[in-house]
Every structure is written in C-alpha cells, then in structure tokens.
Amino acid sequence: MLGRDFRIAFGDSNIDKCLLLAPHGGGIEPGTSEILRAVAELSDWAWYEFAGFLRAGNREALHIPSTFFDEPTLLRLLPQAGLVIAFHGASEARAPLAYVGGKWARGRQLLADAINHSSAKHGILAVDATGLDGSEEIQGFGESNLTNRGRRGEGIQISFSREARNLLFPPDASREARGRRSAPLKPLAASIDRALKELCKA
After folding, report:
1. Cβ(184)–Cβ(123) below 8 Å
2. DSSP string over 70-120
C-alpha cells in the first residue's frame, strides 16, 4: 500500500537539464535513495524515488525491472527530462565497485572518470558496465530502460555493489546505518555532481 509499504517522492526543479532516479530505493536496493538525495541536493537536481519500506522482502515484493517500470508519476516526468541518471544496487562483485552503464558513451566515460578521480576519498572504483558480460540490468543498453527514456534517448545508470553501499553506510547498509551519513558519501556525491554539471552542458 502506498504510504505504508512503499513511497513515491520527487522534485522537478531543473528537470529540463537532468532527472536523477532511484527506482529501487528504500529497502529494495538499500543505499540508492540516500546516494540519490546526496547528489540531488548539491545542485538542486530534479529527482524521483520509489522506495520500499516492508519489514522484510522488499526486493522480492517491490522490485520492478527498469525495462518494465511503469509507475505513472515517473512516466509523466521522463518526457520532460533532458538527461536521465539512474542509481541502482548490484550484488555481482566482492569489492566496492560502481558499474556505469547506459547508452550514452561519453556520459559513461566522464562520470566514471569523475568517480575514479576522487576514489581515494570514498574508496569506490567505477568500471564501464557495457564491456562486461552480464544482464541488461547492469549494462542499461535497452531502449526501454528508464535511463534511456529522457529527451536525449540515451542516459547513464550507476549500479553500486553491495560492498560499495556497505562502505558508504557502514557496516551493512541497514536502515539504521543509512540514517547516518558516512564520510565517503560526500566526496562521492560531489564527484557525480561535477560530472553532471559538465554533461548537462552537452
């Protein structure tokens, strides 16, 4: 039930430039809502969050794949967005990694470079997801993927490994841990914000 089991929230200022998404927020892919908000508030980016709040089983009950995500509020926002950046969780690594996917090649490269440039401050390494064997969920190439449904027709998604999210919200990215902002979150958010400002000039 909306408002009890899950939440839909958004802010649409500057949506013509960029829209940040956390379609699997809250307990669905823990930590993605908090990363989204840390970035959005730096430059008043437009944002959208679908967050699960079940006591257990959020992913099993509330995870809608990005290629099938049809929540009406987001569907109204996407055509207004210049560039779409989606934040996801991933479990494919045993290291603090950020898989950068989506159709926009220049965007992937610039965003990955920005994250890696400040990796000494936050401990997360960005890698290009499109060169890896894996599913659409990680690569983000599909035209029906949320990140590619803004006005550009090509966007970027960042999928943070569980180890990366645990690093940002130690020790385990639990609900309690996510309520405390760790030191690495600020430089990570700042690196993404800098990249977005550059990309939104394109």
Report:
1. yes
2. --HHHHHHGGG-SEEEEEEEE-S-SS-EEEEESS-HHHHHHHHHHHHHTHH
Is residue 142 in some structural domain?
yes
Work out how many domains the chain is built from and give that number.
Answer: 1
Query: pLDDT for 40-96, tens place per residue?
Result: 999 999 999 999 988 888 888 889 889 899 999 999 999 999 999 999 999 766 899
Phi, psi of 60 (to 5 degrees): -65, -35
Q: Is residue 1 part of a domain?
A: no
Q: Which candidate, 40, 42, 152, places its Cα nearest to that of 87?
A: 40
* pLDDT tens for each residue of 103-134: 999 999 999 999 999 999 999 999 999 877 66
Beta strands in the chain (DSSP E): 6-11, 18-26, 46-52, 83-90, 97-101, 125-128, 156-161
Residue 186 belongs to what domain range?
6-199
The CATH number given to whatever domain includes residue 77 is 3.40.630.100
